[in-house]
Structure formats: C-alpha cells, structure tokens
Amino acid sequence: MHNTTPDGPVIPGWRLIVSDTGRYWAIRNRAFPRVALRAGAEPAVDADTFEEVQVAVAAQEDKARTAVAAAEKAAVANAEKAAVAASETTGPVS
Q: Among 5, 50, 66, 78, which residue's beta carbon has the most beta carbons within 10 A?
C-alpha cells in the first residue's frame, strides 16, 4: 500500500491510499463527531476505483452532516422546551 502522491488524486479531509492491487482506501483525517459515528458514519471506506471511493466518502460525509444537523435540531428543541417549562414554574414575584 502507498499514499497517493501530491500530484495524484485527492479527497480533501481524507487520506487516500492505494493498495498494491490497485484498490482505493480513504481514511478521514479528523474523527467524525460521536453522534455521526452512532448514526453509522464510517471514517474509513474502500472501493475498486477512485470514482467509487469518492462516492463512498461523499455518502459518509452526508450521513455525518445529517446526524449532526438532527442532533443540533433536537438540542435546540430541548432547550426551548426547558425554557418554556422554567417560565411556567416561576410565577410572578409578590
């Protein structure tokens, strides 16, 4: 196996390796957030061609973005619920 050369194919944010048999492997440079990993995002993918590994990387990045967005939306909704609940439990001061 060997890393691709600087003038070879590149996937930003991912380390690209080509095996001795010509199979492509891509490993993410930075870890995905935990919520993305729990949603099934894979930090390493492999494929027969560079184009296929690009598609696999895009699918993992999309899965991660979707998971993070859903978690952020849930966090905002929970914060709003907590704020409403807090305002309902505190009455006017006499």
A: 50
Q: By the 8 A CB rule, do 1 and 17 touch?
A: yes
pLDDT of residue 79: 75
What is the per-residue pLDDT across 60-75, written as a single tens digit (0 to 9) for each?
Answer: 999 999 999 999 998 7
Q: Are 20 and 47 in contact (CB under 8 A)?
A: no
Contacts by 58-66, CB closer than 8 A, 24 or more apart: 60/28, 60/32, 63/36, 63/39, 64/32, 64/33, 64/36, 64/39, 66/39
Q: How far apart are CA 4 and CA 8, in angstroms?
A: 6
Residues 6+ apart with CB under 8 A from 51: none
| Positions in the chain short of pLDDT 70 | 1-2, 4-6, 90-94
Residues near 45 by beta carbon (within 8 Å), at least 6 away in sequence: 25, 26, 53, 56, 57, 60
